[in-house]
Amino acid sequence: MTEALSFIHRFEPGGDAAGKALLLLHGTGGDENDLLPLGRMIAPAAALLSPRGKVLENGMPRFFRRHAEGVFDEDDVRRRANELADFVGEARKSYGLSALIAVGYSNGANIAAAMLLLRPETLDGAVLLRAMAPLAQTTPVDLAGTPVLILSGAADPIITPAKAALLVSLLQAAGAKVEHHMLPIGHELSQADISLARKWLGT
User: Fold this and answer.
1) How far apart are CA 203 and CA 27, in angstroms?
2) Does domain 9-201 have CATH number 3.40.50.1820?
3) Parallel, antiparallel, or unpaired for β 100-105 and 21-25?
4) pLDDT digits (tens, 9 = 90+) for 140-175
5) HSE of 113 in the Cβ direction (CA atoms, 13 Å)?
6) List 106, 169, 190, 195, catalytic entry
7) Is 169 one of the catalytic residues?
8) Are 181 and 152 in contact (CB under 8 A)?
9) Burial of 135 (0-12, 13-18, 19+ CB in 10 A)
10) Does residue 175 come out as left (phi exceeding 0), alpha (psi in the -120 to 50 range) or beta?
């Protein structure tokens, strides 16, 4: 089901009486269908909102531009994070969403982190899978009590433990309640990610 909002997206209503919803943000080369199965696995009753990134890199959708692997176009990060946050506001009204938790993988996790650091009112929490700090510097924001789960891979060739730790420290400095796990895997997702995310979400 796709509404004519500012991003191409999929929306699947949920059966959660509390109105919990997940904002699913795909990695490079994914689309609005990519993380729907993951969303259903980790929160079976939640509504699912899954937009497609607007940036194309060699024909592959992304949420923002980069200069090289792990080297981001920070001006574009800021612009695209604000653009996505505006879409989230549209979708909240259109679909009647209350609590909205981002679940992002790789590039999607990084844009979710950028929204937390630039537009903290946009999200009620986040599950960041293979994320790193998307910006070198940000103005102070208040994320007091915002719950964030970060799942990193110890053998990740793209996001080193140091890069993941920097993101943890940035979010904690803003007041977020961060839970961080370093898993014995690489950049790929695993059953451990699903189990930890489901436990953290309480589903």
Assistant:
1) 24
2) yes
3) parallel
4) 899 999 999 999 999 999 999 999 999 999 999 999
5) 32
6) 106
7) no
8) yes
9) middle
10) left
- Rounded CA-CA distance 110/150 in Å is 11
Instruction: Say how far apart CA 203 and CA 199 lie, in whole Å.
Output: 7
Single pTM value for the model = 0.95
Tokens of 131: 């994320």
Amino acid identity for residue 12 in this structure: E
Compute CA distances 17 → 12, 46, 76, 98, whole Å. 15, 9, 37, 11
Alpha helices in the chain (DSSP H): 36-42, 74-95, 107-118, 161-173, 191-201
The answer for 58, left when phi > 0, alpha when psi is -120 to 50, beta otherwise, is: left
Considering 156, 169, 181, 190, which one is annotated as catalytic? 156
Catalytic residue among 31, 180, 187, 190: 187
- Residue 156 tokens, joined: 């990740």
Each residue's pLDDT tens digit, 36-50: 999 999 999 999 999
106 is catalytic: yes
* Interatomic CA distance for residues 30 and 188, integer angstroms: 14
Q: Is 142 a catalytic residue?
A: no
Cα separation, 98 vs 189, in Å, equals 28
